[in-house]
Amino acid sequence: MIVYAIYIIDEGGRPLVSQYFQSSDDIPNEVLFGALFTAFKDLAADVTTQKSWEMKSIGIERLFYHTKSFGPFNVVIVTNTPKSPENLLQTIGLRFMKEHHKELVIDFLVDLRIFDSFKEIIQNIVKEENLVDESGQLKPTKRFSVGGIFDLSSELQSTALALIALEEGTLEAISEESGNSQLETVNSLNILQKMGYIGRKKKEGKQIFFYSA
Q1: What is the secondary structure of 134-154 as a DSSP string?
Q2: Which of 5, 101, 159, 178 could form a disulfide with 188 if both were Cys (CB 3.0 to 4.6 A apart)?
Q3: pTM recorded for the entire structure
Q4: Number of structural domains, the chain?
């Protein structure tokens, strides 16, 4: 499991702490996710018959947002796997409560900078668990199959087959191998990445695309 980001959000959806471990344009920022989180909770409260309902996970494309409520705040951990990191959620939630229980009883804090020091605590907890991909890799979550490739559009097919032939490669190399323009190739790579078929990493200062064999 790789941790991409951790949020601590109050009951109103306001982000108190945000700590990112990966650079990804696909991870919503803390304000957007706070709004989404509140909207999901409100919707679920309207449609569920359970008196005490708690949202635990949301899957958005290839990322999974795992949540745990601690009364006045919620811990949200973004990972690449649907399995909830219960121990990590519990550890961070209890540690935050220990460090900031006095501030949490205040109805509405104006200056949220008092929580900034907790980012370092989050970093240390996550690194101790060895859950951060230090290379900055964004790993694929699916494997190519013959049937899956044939179900792709012709443009996506040619990009996928080019990457399979190369095993890994830069945008320029994949474009040349596929015979498509670089603009067409980058569009195809973005789609295949969102589908979970390919990953990306940095190697010698260059962005490299790869797949799971």
Answers
A1: TT--B--SSB--HHHHHTS-H
A2: 159
A3: 0.56
A4: 2
Q: What DSSP letter does each residue of the chain carry, written as one string?
A: --EEEEEEEETTS-EEEEEE-S--TTSPPHHHHHHHHHHHHHHHHHH---SS----EEEETTEEEEEEE-SSEEEEEEESSSS--HHHHHHHHHHHHHHHHHHHTSS--S-GGGGTTHHHHHHHHHHHTT---TT--B--SSB--HHHHHTS-HHHHHHHHHHHHHSEE-HHHHHHHHT--HHHHHHHHHHHHHTTSEEEEEETTEEEEEEB-
111 and 9 in one domain?
yes
Nearest to 32 by CA among 5, 62, 2, 50: 5
Contacts 24+ apart (CB under 8 A), 192-195: 192/156, 192/159, 192/160, 193/138, 194/26, 194/61, 194/62, 195/62, 195/142
122 found inside a domain:
yes
Q: What is the pLDDT of residues 153-169, one digit of tens each?
A: 999 999 999 999 998 99
How do residues 1-52 score in pLDDT, each as one tens digit? 788 889 998 887 888 898 887 765 556 666 666 666 666 666 555 555 554 5
- Domain containing residue 157: 146-211
Given 73, 102, 128, which residue is the final one in a domain?
128
